[in-house]
TrEMBL record:
The keyword Isomerase does not apply. The active site is at K79, S154, S178. Allows the formation of correctly charged Gln-tRNA(Gln) through the transamidation of misacylated Glu-tRNA(Gln) in organisms which lack glutaminyl-tRNA synthetase. The reaction takes place in the presence of glutamine and ATP through an activated gamma-phospho-Glu-tRNA(Gln). This is Glutamyl-tRNA(Gln) amidotransferase subunit A. Heterotrimer of A, B and C subunits. The lineage of its organism: Bacteria, Bacillati, Bacillota, Negativicutes, Selenomonadales. Residues 24-463 form the Amidase domain. Its EC number is 6.3.5.7.
Amino acid sequence: MELFKHTAHALHDMLQSKQISAVELTNAVFARTDAVEPKLRSYITETREQALAQAAAVDNKIARGEQIAPLAGIPGALKDNICTKGVKTTCASRILANFVPPYDATVVDKLAAQDAVLVGKTNCDEFAMGGSTENSGFFITRNPWDTDRVPGGSSGGSAAAVTAGQAIWALGSDTGGSIRQPAAYCGNVGLKPTYGRVSRYGLVAYASSLDQIGPFAKDVTDCALVLNAIAGHDAKDSTSINAAAPDYTKALVQDVKGLKIGLPKEYFAAGIQPEVAAAIQKAVDQLVAMGAEVREVSLPHTEYALPAYYLIAPAEASSNLARYDGVGFGHRASGSDIIDMYKKSRSEGFGPEVKRRVMLGTYALSSGYYDAYYLKALQVRTLVKQDFDKAFAEVDVLIAPTAPTTAFKIGELSDPLAMYLQDICTIPVNLAGLPGISIPCGFAQGLPVGMQIIGKPLAEATIIQAAYAFEQANDYHTRFAPLGEG
């Protein structure tokens, strides 16, 4: 089997036993990228020289007989809204097209401590605002399972790169489903940690109370390894949870006996593609056969989560993106005076979806409308969280579709509201700050179906255990996208 098809944990064993070298593995991933990148366009920036130097350093450690960290020498990628010192971080926006951060994000420092090899920065929706990666300011990324379809978003480049073998693992960010939904569309594993479990220091902010960095991986074991590498308290992030992170690999146990599963009836309502609903039900039946218990639960304020999110997130975005005015950094246009320069810089630098959300948020925060819209949305957010609290008083995890459909065709959802509805199953989890994982649970018309497992706050180990038990009883995670090999 080609090296790019292996998991990180299998490659770690091959590196440590000297069956392969880290440089050989990194070059194999680059060769794969050369073969498929023209079809997919997963990357905005590649860092080949830096990656090969990192790989050579790992090979030297192995040659000296040193034990290496689980991700040492394993090629991975970062979503291009995570700051990397000396390497462009564009957020897929023309306004930051040439921005080079002077510092690394905390997750980048943590990966460096593992001697991970970083092969590039992946494409996404501009400033992580979107669900298809069609809103990138540069180009569209395509789904490896069908290049006429989207990879999901906003972390579509990271998801496509892992599925296609252009990276063994990747990081994305999830504000309303931007890790889990593309993981479902591309058929890999994506995990959104509890808000505060992973440091946001160095993540370019979209909506600060919702953003969270998390991993993409080929299987649940790799997902646990990457989460081990990046989780933990960070004094540089005031919202970071000051609690020790456990070893998530200890949750890799194929046992769900007695696990109480809740099925939220509101997540199986009209609008769910029948094949998706059938795949989820089949997966739940399988977990029950393995010893889990299942019951229906209700999250009655689910229908209000989407409108609340699209007030809170744009409001925070309008504030966070106010800094891009052509003065501090980023694109600057010529203007007759400073106001004209501001206006032209932002008009030229931002794409239509970012402008839409900034205007929505600015309106929601404006004098006279704050109480009617933004404050009301915050109250709804509390009700959504209380729904989850009540459900988790009865069950250990919740299971639902990650997305209501499989990956849609590029250009198919031109109506922004139709696009927003693709996040209906993931947004409530962000509003409540909970962890969620998406794993492959079947196929519909040749396209992957993702199952979302939602946990209590800081219960990443529980959802990893449930996901691992299901994964080990199936082979969906071992299938490869039928992407041409040339």
